[in-house]
Amino acid sequence: MELKEISKNEYDEFLIKIRNHSFYSTSKMANVKSIDYADPKLLALVDNGQILAVGMTLIRKLFISKRMDLFIGAYALDEKYEYIFYDKLKDYAKKMGVIKLLVKPDKLYSTMDQEGNITSYADHSFVDKMKEVGYIENDGSVIKNYGLSNYQFVKDMREFLPDDEKKLLKSFNNNARRKIKKAKELDIRVRPIEREELEDFKKLTEDTSRNQGFADKSLRYYTKFFDEFKNDAEYLTAEIDLDRSIKKLKDLIGSLDPNSKKNTQRIKSLEKDLNLLEEYKKDSDSNVINLANMILIYQEDEAIYFYGGSIEKYHKLPGAFILQHEAMLRTMRRNLPIYNFFGVFFEGENHDINSSKGILRFKQNFNGYIIMKSDAFLYYPNPTKYKFLMKIRSIGHKVLDRFIKK
User: Fold this and answer.
1) Where in the chain is the domain with CATH 3.40.630.30?
2) Which residues does residue 304 pair with via DSSP β-bridges, in sequence order?
3) Which of 350, 400, 392 is nearest to 117 (CA)?
4) CA distances, 301 to each of 160, 184, 205, 212, 230 (Å)
């Protein structure tokens, strides 16, 4: 058996046999990641011309060295070939001159309720098997959410299929139901984004990344992703037409009897919303405002909220809530059993829920549970060289810090 590079067609033909493989392992994603990485490789474990396992590796330049990443996978029809793939990958990494090899097997580790309490553990035999072929568990040098998040918030959609929208809405908490009702009242609408609108899409992701403290993707990345996944993903936006919504509120207020006690609070609430929209109208250069957006990916057994953003300035308008609701409705229309809100963040071994920066808190409005996927496994082709280079890098950072402070 040997590990070798194969063509895109060979890779895709094998991967399509693997049920619900991650979009992150596809040749399409390799094309997207080529923006950030020097040289994505489509690799296969081959025996007498037969492909037994595949995986996509990425090489990132580090200071004066290189690291190889296999973010998800490898994939094989027979699991035993996964570990032979990982074993052969070590020699391939040496050949490519990298000082560190990172692998994240696509394995479930545990399941938690939405508060972070573990409800069940998966089969952990893969951990021992990874060690047997020469890898170590994450030594702390790789953050847990590097690449694909270890923690993902998901909602089981099976009880709502094929089209029980009322039951879906009832499954959300009171806050989400109230926000969605408000969004409909304000006439906030969700629609697909066209390619020429991606600059506006990025403005929202930039605002979110700035407020949440994580790095945004480049416009080039979003454009490449759009082109590669155009048949398997949608870019969606929740937007409000201020003139239309203001007119709707005025008409609604005018239709209510102000002398009726039962309408008093209702009119006050509507007038408050009307004042808010009129304030936004004064401050905005455009009548139509994009409130929230997302990339929604469709896989064989799930839909994934991969990436998105919103404008902090308009957080009083429930665009993000109606957007998630619409994404779940689209999931139902495709008869997919899982809606994956994707990454949430914890800190420490006890899964500190207070470290989630509001991301988890928002997703909890829709009621679901958390899955924990495998952490990274590492291999150092030349441990002595790695330690030496890391020491040089550390010294370099200290010198640079002193220079900046001066």
Assistant:
1) 2-106+376-405, 153-239+286-373
2) 297, 340
3) 350
4) 15, 29, 27, 30, 18
DSSP 194: P
CA nearest neighbour of 332 among 358, 302, 306: 302
Q: What single-letter DSSP state applies at residue 1?
A: -
User: Residue 274: what are its φ and ψ, rounded to 5°?
Assistant: -65, -45
User: Which 8-state DSSP code applies to residue 233?
Assistant: E
Task: Tell me the fold of 153-239+286-373.
Answer: Aminopeptidase (3.40.630)
Apex 308 CA angle, 67 and 61, nearest 5: 15
**One-letter amino acid of 220:** R
pTM as predicted: 0.91
DSSP 341-370: EEE----TTTT-GGGSTTHHHHHHTT--EE
φ, ψ of residue 334 to 5 degrees: the values are: -90, 5
pLDDT at 404: 53
The Cα-based distances of 357 to 73, 227, 233 in angstroms read 29, 32, 27
Question: Could you tell me the mean pLDDT of each successive run of 10 residues in the chain, 406 residues long?
Answer: 96 94 95 84 97 95 84 94 98 94 95 94 95 94 78 97 96 98 97 96 92 86 96 97 97 93 93 96 93 97 95 94 98 98 70 62 96 95 83 64 54
Q: C-alpha angle with apex 234: 196 to 18, nearest 5 degrees?
A: 135
How far apart, in whole angstroms, are the C-alpha atoms of residue 4 and residue 45?
7
Q: CA-to-CA distance for 373 and 124, rounded, in angstroms?
A: 11
The token duo for 11 is: 């890779």
Classify domain 2-106+376-405 at the CATH class level. alpha beta
Which of 46, 38, 44, 45 is CA-nearest to residue 69? 38
CA distances from 398 to 55, 57, 393, 394, 401 (A): 37, 32, 9, 6, 5
Q: Measured between alpha carbons, how far is 371 from 359 in angstroms, rounded to an integer?
A: 15
Query: Rounded to an integer, what distance in angstroms lies between the CA atom of residue 342 and that of residue 154?
Result: 7
| pLDDT value of position 391 | 76
What is the secondary structure of 46-94 as a DSSP string?
EETTEEEEEEEEEEEEETTEEEEEE-S--EESSTHHHHHHHHHHHHHHH
- Residue ranges of alpha helices (H) inside 284-355 are 319-333
